[in-house]
Amino acid sequence: MVKEIQGHMRLRASGDRHEIRQQYVPSLWSQMIRKLENEGKDAVPEVIELMDSYFLTKDDWDAVMELGVGGMDQDKVKIESQTKATFTRL
User: Fold this and answer.
1) What is the C-alpha separation between 21 and 42, in angstroms, rounded?
2) What pTM does this model have?
3) Average pLDDT of the chain?
4) How many domains does the chain have?
5) Is 25 helix (H, G, I), strand (E, B) or coil?
6) Mean per-residue pLDDT, 81-85
């Protein structure tokens, strides 16, 4: 999963897969997953803009979600179903 994310991000990020995992994934988690959880559907356009800027796909979003770092376990994340639906549509 990290190699896939690194492959998509290579035009914007120069790190190897270890740097992507250690430096970028925690930041992406906060800027994508946590933002959707905290701000709801209003954050969807901003999250998609961030993903577009790093050439990330929905699969990459799922990978970042699954790779949750430290205490950021995906089972503890509560994103409203309306927010998920809006995110999926866009």
Assistant:
1) 27
2) 0.83
3) 88
4) 1
5) helix
6) 90
